[in-house]
Amino acid sequence: MTSNTTQPPTVSIIMACFNAAPYLRASVGSALGQSLREIELIIVDDGSSDGSVAIGHELAASDHRVQFHHMARNGGPAAARNHALRHARGRFVAILDSDDLMHPDRLKRLVAVAEAIEADIVADDLIVFDDADRSPPESFFRGSRARRGGWVTLTDYFRETRLYGRSPNLGFLKPLIRRDLITANGIRYDEGLRIAEDDDLIVQLLRAGARYRTIPEAGYFYRKHGSSISHRLSLADAEAMMMASERLAADLHDAPAPIRRALARRNRSIRAARDFTMAIEALKARRPVAAAGLMCGHPRSIPLFRMPVAARLGRLKAGGRAPAAASPPAIAPRVCFISNQRLIGATNGSSAYLIDLARATRAAGREPHLVQPSPAIFGRLPFFRLRPEMSVFASHHVRGAWRVGDWVVARNPRVHLNAAIGIARRIARRMGIAAAWTRDRPAPYAVAARWTKADQLFVTGHARPRADIVVADYMFQSRAFPFVARPDTPTAIVMHDLFHARSDGFAATGGGDSVAAIGRDAELALLDRGDAVIAIQQAEAAFVRRELPDREVILAPMAAEPVAAAQPGEDDRLLFVGSNTAPNVHGLRWFFDRVWPAIRAARPAATLDVAGSVAAAFPQGGPAGVRFLGLVDDLAPLYAGAGVVISPLIQGSGLKIKLIEALAQGKATVATGVTLQGVEEIASQAVAKADDPIPFADAVIGLLQAKTARATLAAKALDTARVHFSGDACYRAYRNWLAKITPTHLSQVSNEEARLCA
After folding, report:
1. Strand residue runs (E) in 92-134
2. I want to staple 364 with a disulfide (CB 3.0 to 4.6 A). Which of 357, 414, 515, 735 is the partner?
3. DSSP 3-state assignment of 472?
């Protein structure tokens, strides 16, 4: 046993353990990984015969917050928890089963709620998941408790704790409890109960006047074992529950009528469960006549047979498939990318970058999978077609979508309606109708969309079976990590951008970011959730290394495929390539207003091609000489013909991927300092830099009229791309990180899961 003698903790986490060796490390890890650091964990081994004792001693020795106690004989979970209560010192007590998990922010959230509303007991929603991945995960609450939570009176509790009822049984919850309420009333677990001991404790607390509140957020991960429910309640357990329910009814014989009625209904459910268990025992003993007699004599038990029947039908529907975890380990370790950007193909910089990382994953001998938990990726586009490059992913799951070949179709009719409304508005504007209803209202970016419980369940259901390694596409998706329900899985976050730097830049120029506005501390908190951070450029990698020294930082610039020779292009042809994001829109407007007039005055024949979805932000078109081309299937001819590529960005962060593309195309480029952020030392000699309108215009004019100077700068650009932005150079560090997650380690994890389900 290891004891903590420092300042009393805020929460004492109590864990009864019996033969839980396969799960114990993960469960303890989820407890010790709480963002609320003032905790203690009291593990009481209840006479285990597997490796639990050795693991418990090891965990206690490795963290001073862990106590480990070993009971010589098995006394049941109630006895183990009473032992732990005697050693608890926290203001609150939280129960964690030795095979379950907690969200890292769970205890901080529950304590905050308890203190804010002066509750004695606070419980959150459960995510119930099948350890063998044979059935989809589910949240526990229904109705109003799922939407907004609520108070729980003794009457409510009896009404909502019917055994094998169709409604969620509140007795399964694992609430946070004020310890002084337990000690002041001499409340202890009933050691005669091996099932429903938590339920009995809550009843005692409510009878003592406890204020009990539920909240809708899901923070506890309840692990199911197997698919049959009949084995969960032995006849001895059922009889013990019956005796306890009868004692409780006698104690409350003079309670108010609503309490007595609710308790009577609850006790009838326990009696029916006992009778059902007797019939199941008879069937297992191959005594069908006796089972039929029991059913006829106790007709309340008959409806409960829906449960084993449903379980059998579920197995038949699954076609007898073996559980995922019991399958042989995959030949290639699986890397699950979790993304909420609309990924159709390499249609924009961020999509191309993620696809490149998936290709690098395959090159490293790992198998990439893609999970997209938010239907918000559709925006107002009701369907889209996946391009061939998306085949790099071994599987692709999108919530709220049908997949028809290469087409992905939104299930929500509202998306289709919004698309029709958007088309109607566009037609009205082209007809010259100017009214409030014709104004375009772009859908919000899904990258930073608020997470819903349905999103979380989708991650548990689809990412968990494929999560030997998890990569979050943008820091906002790091919120998905806990819902993978595999806390030992290595994680990484693809930064793309340093968002608080973007926000500062937009604030300085009076604009707003099109993706998300976030402060420095909040961004660091999200980046800190991953084991590793994948930075797209050197300056941002250095920032993360400085601010988060405990996180591994992987520098992985965007790679490009260099052309065979530099391309000076044609006189008086300019090119801009960009998606419809705020940095591109603001930069292009600045160029039109402040730079383009000077260029046209000096070179009247000059033209500017604008390629990419940025055209959507300019429905009225641009000034004379500007052509908006929209999305272009093949940019190569545009690059080849352009004499100068421009990148007039005045806000933003990350690596400007179109800059790397222009270098690899061997183009003379004029760019601002914002464009060059993170690659100044590498690319400063290969790009003409100008931050003010007149120098920017002069640089463009000089290159348009001097083909030799243009060819020289184009050659330097191509050389820079070949040396610094080849696929091998850019993704070597990422591949090395993947290599550290060895197949041996992963196969051990898979084999352990297989043993659990055997």
Report:
1. 92-95, 101-102, 121-130
2. 735
3. strand
